[in-house]
Specification:
Blueprint lengths: L37 H4 L2 H4 L17 E4 L16 E4 L13 H18 L3 H13 L5 E2 L3 E3 L2 E7 L7 E6 L6 E5 H5 L6 E7 L5 E7 L6 E7 L5 E15 L5 E7 L5 E8 L8 E5 L6 E6 L5 E7 L4 E7 L8 E4 L7 E6 L2 E6 L8 E6 L9 E4 L5 E8 L3 E8 L2 E8 L4 E4 L8 E4 L9 E8 L2 E9 L5 E6 L10 E9 L5 E9 L11 E5 L16 H4 L4 E5 L9 H5 L7 H16 L8 E6 L1 H12 L6 E5 L5 H6 L19 H8 L14 E7 L8 H13 L6 E6 L10 H18 L7
Parallel strand pairs: 33-34, 33-35, 35-36, 36-37, 37-38
Antiparallel strand pairs: 1-2, 3-5, 4-5, 5-6, 6-7, 8-9, 9-10, 10-11, 11-12, 12-13, 13-14, 15-16, 16-17, 17-18, 19-20, 20-21, 21-22, 23-24, 24-25, 25-26, 27-28, 28-29, 29-30, 31-32, 32-34
Helix pairs in contact: 4-13, 8-9
Pfam family, one: Peptidase_S9_N
EC number: 3.4.21.-
Catalytic activity: Hydrolysis of Pro-|-Xaa >> Ala-|-Xaa in oligopeptides
């Protein structure tokens, strides 16, 4: 797990364990017209006296010393400082792992009430923005059906219904069969996130996982599709990922340890108790997390464990009765590898032998050891390889080149590679749903900043492509917008890309425009140029949208990531500042017309840059922000901490203590004229706990010298990925956009 989005347990390739709910988090952008600002509508302070309920809530200070270094009977890493260093944290008491402390809940309710009061004068704009967002959504819609055995499967949404409906129909038939209606499942629940939905090999059973709290802990139910009856609900507190074996008898899943780390992979016998499940793999090293994936041939289950820097994989032959998986390559510090089966061989993508951007190798399944690996694609330092998706007679290789995603078709006995070419200069391609093993066609998705997502089917024999569907976007004319990509020179001379999208001809003049700048910059996650209808409210108000492809992300390859982690993490922040400075220098915008946003680890980015350059930004939104770096990364009992010692470093060790302290947002708040700030969070978030933004805002308010509002909006019923209800999610985004657009003075109602 990491401070972003993916469903743990079923890992498509565990070097990058992400379902990419991330890339701008797909929730991170939106906005609408007569310019108006909060100050022009109402001045809250003028309406209320000191001590009023509408003053910012004050968080009590209570003496507490936090130890960094050695603590008896605690996991503090390999080389903790001894004696430890102690630091005072007067807001430490806000942490409550149970989320039941009445005093804490009362404070969060006060924060919400204060935020509601400050935003109340803009309520009509929030409602207008909500309607505007929905105006770009085809609310009743369905996905492209995909063939799977004797059926076509698809999902659909219905106007007014908040959740997906999973359906199928027999090949050649128009008769629809609903196999899972998430709307029915969500009734009576404040939160309902369906993780995996897996049809059994016979197509008679459906296994699905559901999280009802937002804490990303999933219950598993197995349903008889024909009768709709639950036949098995023995599995609780799982990581969410599910895979059937070769028949309906066995279901594979994974579970967490106490720190929410995926540490075990299991085989469950359908209809049996959980107590009789077979443990296939257990990872004891707290730096590592486990995962699993069935090959498309259904012959093997691949089981793996990975830290940020090291992999270890196993292969289990599902055609045999044995539950003993065979080791592929023993873990070696710094060596990462991902594998898949193709044409009876194992194909491995690895950084072995100093292949920084990874290379493609293969070996016989019965000789999986690294001494037998042979090179398939010569190493190219300018091409980053990511994953291989394999079929009976071909495979598809994904990677990056020149800052963008690329794909190659692998065919023939000689593993000949053919790159798939596209017309647009800046675009994003990603795997689609491809269930059939014996096929000559392959589906993938394609998008750009001005092209809504397309589902494309390619005939791998002829190369012919067919757009099966382009996501409908009502009230959108792509000819009205244009995009650009520029290079920014970072503080140390590194070239950092930045994508721009804006109304056509908007930049013809010399006057600075309102601008929205987004960034992330961690975990090698790339913020690729894809279409997001939630950007349209910005664009349609003549706001320039910019995306900073800063180091810490993977846009330019592995070194783009490695040059902004550990003791180089500050490159992420200075790159972002360089991008903002470039926008100002080119007169695209000005500091008083620039708003910024980041989410999760991107919230760390926001917290760091407003400490470093509070003068450069007018306002900011930090979503579920990871801002209490020192406290969180020193405590191994907090979810994600141990696995991320290979991302940020361990502040319990002298090597990292001073450096991490120098950028941790919570620890570097100072007397300054801070930009206006909205922080949003979820009480049940396991990735970035609610107490981080709560403490951070209390400290910011204490030190802020400007008149800018500092607001916290805490969802008391959700986790890291906000609301599961799509309409509630749009309302949340409308609220966030109201704040940002008001700060840019471009709010209006049409």
């Amino acid at each position: 797990m990491m401070r972003t989005g993916f469903i743990s347990g079923s890992i498509i390739h565990w070097r990058r364990r992400i379902l990419q709910k991330t890339a701008m988090d797909n929730r991170a952008m939106i906005a609408t017209g007569a310019a108006v600002g909060i100050a022009a509508v109402i001045t809250a302070r003028a309406l209320t006296g000191a001590g009023s309920q509408f003053e910012p809530p004050i968080l009590d200070k209570r003496e507490h010393q936090v130890a960094f270094g050695y603590v008896e009977d605690e996991n503090r890493g390999e080389n903790p400082m001894n004696p430890p260093i102690f630091r005072e944290d007067p807001y430490f008491w806000v942490r409550d792992d149970t989320r039941k402390n009445k005093e804490v809940i009362k404070h969060l309710e006060k924060e919400n009430a204060y935020t509601d009061f400050k935003m109340k004068p803009l309520k009509k704009y929030t409602e207008s923005l909500y309607k505007e967002l929905l105006s770009h959504v085809q609310e009743t819609d369905s996905s492209v059906p995909y063939k799977h055995g004797p059926y076509e499967y698809y999902t659909k949404t219905v106007e007014g219904s908040s959740y997906k409906i999973h359906c199928r129909r027999e090949l050649g038939s128009e008769k629809e069969e609903i196999i899972l209606d998430e709307n029915v499942l969500a009734k009576g629940k404040k939160h309902c996130d369906v993780g995996a939905v897996e049809v059994s090999p016979s197509h008679q059973l459906l296994a699905y996982s559901v999280d009802s709290t937002g804490y990303e802990t999933y219950e598993v139910l197995i349903v008889n599709i024909g009768t709709g009856k639950v036949v098995d609900q023995a599995l609780t507190e799982t990581a969410g990922g599910l895979t059937w074996g070769r028949d309906d008898k066995h279901l594979y899943y994974s579970t967490f340890d106490q720190a929410h780390r995926v540490d075990k992979v299991w085989r469950h016998t359908q209809g049996d108790t959980k107590d009789n499940d077979i443990l296939l793999f257990e990872e004891d090293d707290e730096l590592f997390s486990a995962g699993f994936q069935k090959t498309r041939s259904e012959r093997f289950m691949l089981i793996g464990s990975q830290s940020s820097e090291t992999s270890e994989g196993y292969i289990l032959d599902l055609t045999k009765e044995s539950t003993e998986a065979e080791l592929i390559a023993k873990r070696e510090k710094g060596v990462l590898y991902d594998m898949n089966e193709y044409r009876g061989k194992l194909y491995i993508i690895t950084n072995k032998d100093d292949a920084k951007n990874f290379k493609l190798m293969s070996t016989n399944v019965d000789q999986p050891g690294p001494e037998n690996w042979k090179e398939v694609m010569p190493y190219d330092k300018d091409i980053k390889l990511d994953l291989l998706s394999s079929f009976k007679d071909f495979a598809v290789l994904y990677g990056r080149q020149g800052g963008f995603t690329q794909m190659w078709i692998v065919r023939g006995d000689d593993d000949a590679l053919t790159r798939v070419e596209f017309e647009e200069k800046a675009y994003t391609v990603a795997p689609g749903i491809n269930e059939e093993f014996e096929t000559t066609t392959y589906r993938f998705s394609y998008s750009s900043l001005t092209t809504p997502m397309q589902t494309i089917e390619m005939n791998v024999d002829s190369g012919e492509r067919k757009v099966l569907k382009e996501q409908p976007v009502p009230n959108f004319d792509r000819s009205s917008y244009e995009s650009d990509r520029i290079e920014v020179t970072a503080e140390d001379g590194t070239k950092v890309p930045m994508s721009l999208v804006y109304k056509k001809d908007l930049l013809n003049g010399n006057d600075p425009k309102p601008c929205y700048l987004y960034g992330y910059g961690s975990y090698e996650i790339s913020i690729d140029p894809f279409f997001n209808s939630k950007l349209l409210p910005f664009l349609d108000r003549d706001v320039v949208v910019a995306i900073a492809h800063i180091r810490g992300g993977g846009e330019m390859g592995r070194m783009h990531y490695e040059n902004a982690k550990y003791l180089k993490k500050k490159n992420t922040f200075t790159d972002f500042i360089a991008c903002a400075d470039e926008l100002v220098a080119k007169k695209i915008t000005a500091p008083d017309r620039l708003v910024i946003e980041g989410r999760s680890a991107g919230g760390l980015l926001i917290g760091a840059v407003i400490n470093m350059r509070p003068d450069l930004f007018h306002a900011a939104h930090a979503g579920v922000p990871f801002v209490d770096v020192m406290n969180t990364m020193s405590d191994a009992t907090i979810p994600l901490t141990t696995g991320e010692w290979e991302e940020w470093g361990n502040p319990n060790e002298e090597k990292y203590f001073d450096y991490m302290l120098s950028y941790s947002p919570y620890d570097n708040v100072q007397k300054a004229n801070y930009p206006a700030l909205l922080a949003t969070s979820g009480l049940w978030d396991p990735r970035v706990a609610y107490w981080e933004p709560t403490k951070w805002l209390a400290k910011l308010r204490e030190n802020n010298l400007s008149d800018g509002d500092i607001l916290l909006k805490m969802d008391l019923a959700s986790g890291h990925f906000s609301a599961s209800d799509r309409y509630k999610l749009y309302r949340e985004r409308a609220f966030e956009l109201t704040f940002l657009l008001d700060q840019l003075k471009v709010l209006r109602t049409d």
